[in-house]
Amino acid sequence: MKKWQCTICGYIHTGDEPPEVCPVCGADKSQFIELIEQKEAPATASQPEAQKQAGIQASPPPPKTPPASLFSFDGITGLMIKHHAHPISVHFPNGIIPMSVTFIFLATIFQSAGLSQASFYSMIFVMLTLPVVLFTGYNEWKKKYRGALTRIFIMKIISAAIVSVCTLVIVLWFLVSPDVLKTPSAWRTVFLMLHLAILAAAGFAGHIGGKLVFKD
Prior knowledge:
Elements: E1 3-6, E2 12-14, E3 32-35, H1 47-53, H2 73-82, H3 85-110, H4 113-143, H5 151-176, H6 186-214
Antiparallel strand pairs: 1-2, 1-3
Helix pairs in contact: 2-4, 3-4, 3-6, 4-5, 5-6
């Protein structure tokens, strides 16, 4: 049975033909390559030793290309990929968003100014961490997944945009109108729905990230 690997996300498929669509990242079958097992070559004398026995003078090895400096942009972004900077950074806002949403709904039910302030400060923290999350995510998408615009990556980008825009709107809205929760109104409903939109978009983006990491 043949094995095929997706060149975008690394998913491996077993079958006579590659799948029409990668079940992990959504890439089409043209992005799959066949994995061919290489048989071990019989042990022989090393190339330099064989050349010496044949009276051939070994040529000097080609010069090595120096690796990118750790302090260069490529060096730093490469380390981000190697040490999983994006999955790490995502955990910070994703751990705070459910707490902030819980606080805002409790503040609405119990008319608690303290819980409302706690939710607001939590959203400020989310807003401050998002630039790091977005940059590391963009870097991983471009370098690890070659900037592929398959369905799953488009949905992940849309989810990130929803979280970013809604977070910014909530913070600015609360600064302008801190009493938005005090009286029932259509605006209060919209304000609460923005929190639910952030929670849903962040959860969906996390689900997609899990598919890419665990290949299922």
